[in-house]
């Protein structure tokens, strides 16, 4: 491990440039974006482009395709807590620079696409600072070497997501969706906060490298049946109670990752998040932000005990299957892709849970390309249906696939790149999705065979989910592009301009296998396989019988195309749809009724409790306070009367008498000496007479 003291300082400069340029964009656009040319679109896109160039230079200087690899560190003192120094800095290793390049590249393409997609929006000038804030937050998250700063950027990512989901806040659904995503993600963030406290109490540091090393050693010692206290460093950073706090911290991080990456049971916010602009959905809710949970688990992977990894694997597999079944019956073009994103994130969680986080990261990368492309393609379709709708004054749903069909002729480029992305999502050979998904499936089979028993249900369920994936994406592809147009006016839909075409074309190129492996049927020479750990694809294949390896390949070559063809035949020529859904379709289309269940178990009781507390506050607390206020007011009136009538009356009476006496005696003050002497003699005479009377 080296530091920047001995490393090329230019890497630090370019890394900081990649991080801070989006922040500069956010500040400039927030202050004067409305007055800039193009409402700031060229400034935001240009600075994001420079950030990508800097990120690319860092990637080329750091990334190594084989492990172990070198991490370049930069640290400086942030603040002190007693004798403990908290350092802030960045870490440049294979994982961080890969995410750095991925986030900036996808962001640049989405910026270019948005210049056409969002043009004419009344809040166009607000869109760009929101996007810049997200890019900065996401880059800070992936570069941070300090878990506390990671948490801060984690929260900023959530804020940016909230702003973008509710971008069209005048729409009730968008406003509610932004609130729902914010609340559910806050539940996960509580877990992150608990993890922070547990880890700091355990190791006295927020440094990610130190936490992974110390606690990873503790877990390895525990697995070897050695006392955890034996792993303490000279300062006693790890105590004998480390096991409890490790589990608490790992559970908290898992909760945070499940909320951010939309895993069961915290997944219901993501489909509703599609109320935001489609360009936002492609960047934040398909390619980058939702992958933050997977990234967090990969970054902190040494902290996770084996039992918790098993939970992650099971939850990921169930989430993937659940979301895939719901996607089967959706008619909203973006909802299909939203549930598909949840499902693919479940595959990534399966890779994490089975111990092959390098496979999960590989699928994260390939998924970012083809899912972003799918959303951009869907956005192109929605954008131009919207124009036709307003031009012809049609009452149609812009995202309803039932009104589409035959768009391959009107939108040929969108059709072809969408086809490439759909093939990659389905996992067909010659496409990137096949390689990454194959790696996860092979790893899960090896893991399950080692554990034995019912654990084999996990990879088998993942295989079944892969078939469902091919079905729902084939169904969508057929309903949107094949057959004849089910709405005659849409025959006049035209392709977008170059700002929309170029990003889609670039992403389409990256759905091909050649960027990741020279062999389209094998994962053995994939650079990412050994870039994050000492394991490579050969390690994944250990313990996996050849029949499983060949079976998965046969499934990809024969089974998936058969499913796609069946979906094509079933939906490409469909002109009418049933008005009434079957019981199963109703169950699936409503997401297994999880939202109503959550409403019954959580939302309604909380609302009832809130309303009850409001009633108690209004009727009891406020009633008592109002009664007390009236009593105090009455007492104050009595006191005012007593003060005015009795106290003031007595004081005024005494004062009046004193004034009368003063007035009386003032009459004797004439200034004449003769009068004073006469009065004195008269007074003496009176006193003498009084004495004579008293003597008798």
From TrEMBL:
It comes from the Bacteria. The chain crosses the membrane at residues 12-31, 43-63, 95-115, 127-143, 149-169, 190-211, 244-262, 283-302, 308-329, 336-354, 360-382, 413-434, 454-474, 547-568, 676-694. GO terms for biological process: ATP synthesis coupled electron transport; electron transport coupled proton transport. It is a multi-pass membrane protein. GO terms for molecular function: NADH dehydrogenase (ubiquinone) activity; NADH dehydrogenase activity. The keyword Transmembrane applies. One of its GO terms (cellular component) is endomembrane system. Residues 78-127 form the NADH-Ubiquinone oxidoreductase (complex I) chain 5 N-terminal domain. It is found in: Endomembrane system; Membrane. Residues 144-449 form the NADH:quinone oxidoreductase/Mrp antiporter transmembrane domain. Keywords: Membrane, Transmembrane, Transmembrane helix. Pfam families: Proton_antipo_M, Proton_antipo_N. This is NADH-quinone oxidoreductase subunit L.
